[in-house]
Specification:
SDR_fam; about 15% strand; Rossmann fold; NAD(P)-bd_dom_sf; single chain; 3-oxoacyl-[acyl-carrier-protein] reductase; Sc_DH/Rdtase_CS
């Protein structure tokens, strides 16, 4: 299996959960730092040649990728009128187009195996929207349309495609918020707290086993986005 962006946060927790279950795990990062026991592969998902090279390395070591967790993502937050072309393009290229590249390449091996799991890591922001995050929200919402199209296209070959939509999670990205910002966020969440990365990983490992779930968006957000 392959987890992108697996050196920290959600991606690392997912990789560690699969490793603990005894799976062969490959992790792609731009700068290294995969969990112990995982195949550590360098890959920038915005570069098609690097994606191809990463799959070649993984397949040589582990065989075809049977589970893809497309988790790599970036933010470049700013209000729309201040958002540059690069702010928009780089976020969409990494978060959405990068996921397309990964899924397209994974599907080749999955089609031959006649089985596979494609899991995209989206965000509650992709469903609710967020001021100052038009680029990020659009990229994360796009994953839903991508997954549901792949679910219809690949389902007859035993391949599922699903989305996990985390809410606010305790990671390096949220550690930089002020206490006031954190309190305001928690006030919006019915469960009154952030998720742990392990709680997101639990949903992803469940989807990897769920043979009759496809085209689904699984919210793991403490109730923040209910109804969306």
């Amino acid at each position: 299996m392959l987890v992108t962006g697996g050196n920290r946060g959600i991606g690392r927790a997912v990789a560690e959960a699969f490793l603990a279950a005894g799976d062969k795990v490959a992790v792609t990062t731009r700068s290294g730092g995969a969990p112990e026991g995982a195949l550590d592969v360098r890959c920038d998902v915005t570069d098609p040649a690097q994606v191809e090279a990463a799959y070649a390395e993984i397949e040589a070591a582990h065989g075809p990728v049977e589970v893809l967790v497309a988790n790599a993502g970036i933010t470049k937050d700013t209000l729309l009128l201040r958002m540059s072309e690069d702010d928009w393009a780089s976020v969409v290229d990494t978060n959405l187009t990068g996921s397309y590249r990964l899924a397209k390449r994974a599907a080749k091996g999955m089609l031959r195996l006649r089985r596979g799991r494609i899991i995209f890591v989206s965000s509650v922001v992709g469903l609710l929207g967020s001021a100052g995050q038009a680029n990020y929200a659009a990229s994360k919402a796009g994953l839903v349309g991508l997954a549901r199209s792949l679910a219809r296209e690949l389902g007859s070959r035993g391949i599922t495609a699903n989305v996990v939509a985390p809410g606010f999670v305790e990671t390096d990205m949220t550690d930089v918020l002020t206490d006031e910002q954190k309190s305001a966020i928690k006030a919006q969440v019915p469960l009154g707290r952030y998720a742990s990365v392990d709680e997101i990983a639990d949903a992803i490992t469940w989807l990897a086993d769920a043979g009759y779930v496809t085209g689904a968006v699984i919210p793991v957000d403490g109730g923040l986005g209910m109804g969306h």
